[in-house]
Amino acid sequence: ASSNPLNDTWVFSYGPTLWTRLEAGVARGRGRSAALCPEFVRPRYQHSMCTIGEATFVFGGIAHSDAAASSLTSLADLWVLRGPPGQRRWQFLGDERVSGVTCEEGDELLWPAPRHGHAMVCDEVSERVYVIGGHTLSGGDWADVWQGDVSGVIGGGANNAGGAGAGA
After folding, report:
1. Which end of the chain is more exposed for a tag (fewer CB within 10 A), N or C?
2. CA dist list (Å): 72 to 36, 75, 78, 119, 136
């Protein structure tokens, strides 16, 4: 058995009972932040996912920080998987670099810190995602709740690539 995190997505169907591997590309960002947009969703574990309609969101987790898999890093990236069947694409919505988490307003950060083992809830009515708690790689715990408005992301399908990010 490998100790490396996987980078695949599977979809379960009730009728007939069947698991199908989802093949999805990445919709590249545009504009000023395009250089900061990753070209692929990093393999990870202890992340969280939730769904609003046809949009599936992934936040955080643990990944290897180098190709040799010699050390780990905790993630704070937000991705959405959307589009019609057969044309689904991952879209990078942001992380602490894009939102400016290194710039503080008082004591409040603008993006959730990297974390794993956290909860994530999607609220279809308010079109918001919530990230709750989690752990740091150094053994600490987060006791916070973050909300992000994804209303500009969920309505556009695969043709709305690259505009909206999730704000705290």
Report:
1. N
2. 21, 10, 18, 20, 11
